[in-house]
Amino acid sequence: MIVQLDFGHDDIAEQLEEVRLLAGSAGASVCAEVYGPRHSPDPATYAGKGKVQEVAAQISAHEADLVIFNHELSPAQERNLERTLQCRVIDRTSLILDIFAQRAKSAEGKLQVELAQLGHLATRLVRGWTHLERQKGGIGLRGPGETQLETDRRLLGKRVKLLKERLGRVERQRGVQRKSRVRGEVLNVSLVGYTNAGKSTLFNALTHAGVYAADKLFATLDTTSRKLWLGEAGNIVISDTVGFIRDLPHELIAAFHATLEATAQADLLLHVVDSASTARNDQVAEVNKVLEEIGASAVPQILVLNKLDLTGLPSAVERDEYGRIQRVRVSAKSAEGLPLLRNALTELALEKSSMMHHLQLIDEISLTPNTLLDSGSFL
To answer: 279, 11 in Cβ contact below 8 A?
Structure first.
């Protein structure tokens, strides 16, 4: 069952549609929805006494076993709601984390998701953490006078420390890989965009990588990089990354630091946009907000307006008054406009190659006087 409160925002319809998609992506079957206007969140239950009674009536009528608030609840609010409704209650952050837990396939992705979950759940130690106790043996572990809650927090802290150490090693390995790519003077491109904008479909269409792509939110979690041959420009490296979403949990941004750092260090971002979505402008703004948070706001961008097969618009390349490429309109599904996108990438790859060549010449020229002086040629 979904609960969505309206605090006066204009995009309430888009928020409702998005939480429906999130719930479906998590495997939930939505049996009822409760929504309505409210001036501000209630400190105790977020929704207020009357709305909570309405939710309770809907739970009873539809025999719902889970209530999803499309908002961020405090631990106290979540606890109060569960006590009143006699039903499991989760907030938007927990829902997104659950989807990430289902989607993670690589060892790195699983580590990142678990770290994000533990960071979120550390403040919600209300149901007992027996699974953590079992991992450490349980009996004989508890210190003198230590409560179950204190034991759980101590075990949780140890697990978080272990996960951070493992992710630190992964991050160092990624750093070595990135340095080797920079030394090779290869254009490094990252696909970014709102979740379900079609990044993985576009990635597959360009590279034939066979990455999992589906009409679901967060179908891709694990970053995949492939070489893409562009004829006279040679190879470039293109990476498919996790999609962003409105109010992306901070725990996820912190946990996925190793993955998102690759985006911040790219030469170019292909910002994939669902051009058929009525909320596309808001989605672009949300992606840019996250890019700024991870230190990638200064990386050059090209907007790739995807899903032309749904809008009926022709493929095209749009440039600014200086001739720089700003937007490319394509359909990753039908492959319309992909040659234009490849040409745009070729143009930018040749620009980088030319720039690197000029920098090498400048370095050689700057070294020449010293070389001559050392050899005595000026005497």
So the answer is: yes
3-state secondary structure of 303: strand
Contacts of 148 (CB under 8 A, 6+ apart): 128, 142
**Residue 185: exposed, middle, or buried by beta-carbon count in 10 A (0-12, 13-18, 19+)?**
middle
Query: Taking the model in full, what pTM does it have?
Result: 0.75
Give 28's contacts (C-beta < 8 A, 6+ positions apart): 66, 68
Strand partners, 269: 190, 301
pLDDT class for 373, splitting at 50, 70, 90?
Answer: very low
Query: CA-CA distance, 113 to 109, in Å (whole number)?
Result: 6
Check: CB of residue 185 under 8 Å from CB of residue 352: yes
CA distances from 55 to 14, 30, 58, 171 (A): 21, 14, 5, 45
DSSP one-letter code for 122: G
- pLDDT confidence tier of residue 367, bands split at 50, 70 and 90: low
Helical H runs in the chain?
12-25, 49-62, 75-85, 92-103, 107-121, 130-136, 148-183, 199-207, 250-255, 257-264, 280-293, 308-311, 338-375
Contacts of 213 (CB under 8 A, 6+ apart): 198, 200, 201, 203, 204, 219, 220
Task: Report which DSSP code applies to 7.
Answer: S
For residue 36, give both structure tokens: 């309505």
